[in-house]
Amino acid sequence: MRTVFLLSFLLTAFMFSCNVEKEESGEMPEVDVDVTEGEAPEYDVNWADVQVNTKTKTVKVPKVIVTMEEKEVEVPSINVSMPNSDEENELRTIRVEAEISGTMHDLEIQKVYAVNNKLIIISELEEESQNLGEERVRISDQIEINAPADLAVRHYIIGERPEGSFNENYNYITSENELQSYLADSKLIYED
Predict the structure, then answer these.
(1) Structure confidence by residue, pLDDT tens digits, 132-189
(2) Cβ atoms of 68 and 184 closer than 8 Å
(3) Does residue 61 fall inside a structural domain?
(4) Is this prediction's pTM over 0.70?
């Protein structure tokens, strides 16, 4: 027992009597500090040298040709008077548009429904036979409506959604039957 006590005492004394000092050295980046009273210091740090310039390169870019021609056409005009409304009506142009490619399409507003404080515009997009080649064309249809300014407008287009981000502005459906429950309490105010 005495030897165990002596060995543990010697081991403890040996552990606490060691003095280990370890030093490492490194380099900090060179920093010039310029300080003016009342301002934040400016640091000058050596870093990557970046140069931006231009060079001439031949690439293929899309070319868009837009031709506008003025035509006299009949535009449907609708006058809506809301019951018990003191708000004045405002003449608004309701337009539906699609950007198409491949073959020409026809886009027409078919029906307008009134539901609560909303106008539901049902349009139809039909493919025609004229080939457009590589061109992209925007087609549209419009109506004029004299109605309270706070009426929200929701568009639904019957037909296949054409490619392109422009066509994400409208909801595309396969038939008007998809909206039957939504249009149950509505009033048809225009039909082409």
Answers:
(1) 888 888 899 988 888 877 788 999 999 999 888 788 889 999 999 998 888 888 888 8
(2) no
(3) no
(4) no
Please state, in angstroms and rounded to a whole number, the distance separating the CA atoms of residues 109 and 157: 9
179 phi and psi angles, rounded to 5 deg? -105, 5
In eight-state DSSP terms, residue 12 is: H
> Quick one: tokens of 104?
């020409």
Question: 123-147: b or e for each residue (b if 16 or more CB lie within 10 Å)?
Answer: bbbeeeeeeeeeeeeebebebebeb
Coil/strand/helix, residue 178 = helix
Residue 94, SS3?
A: strand
The DSSP line for 111-168 is EEEEETTEEEEEEEEEEEEEEEEEEEEEEEEEEEEEEETT-EEEEEEESPPPSSGGGG
The total domain count for the chain is: 1
Residue 27 maps to a domain: no
